[in-house]
Amino acid sequence: MMLRRLFDFFIFSSLFIAACAVLMAYQVNTLFRLTYPSGRFLWFLFFSTVCSYNFHWYFTPHTKSENRRVLWTQRRKNVHLLLIVAGFIGSILFFLQLKNFKNYFRLSIKCRYGDEKNWS
Length: 120
Known about the structure:
By secondary structure, the chain is mainly alpha-helical. The chain has one domain (2-118). 77% of the residues lie in helices and 0% in strands. It is built from 6 helices and no strands. The longest helix is centred in the middle third of the chain and has 21 residues, at 38-58.
């Protein structure tokens, strides 16, 4: 029973999704041999994923359902709120530790929208 509760917590608190996001980013870093402060970025990715997914589940309206996921979420709104706050704080702390984050932001915009001259 205890193992089942731990498993439900890991899956339903979105920690599994955050871990998957980190592993996928790590794989991309490894495959493409990217050079940036990946440790800090991966922690930022983890905490921001935890924050955003739990934000979604915290504000999901109550529904009448027998689904284990829905029942777990409705009974543990306080866990989601705690993970939202922890994720937000962790996201901010690791975002601020990323050196030259403006350059990464510019690069992502440049890749998406082209040259800076076309940013109107």
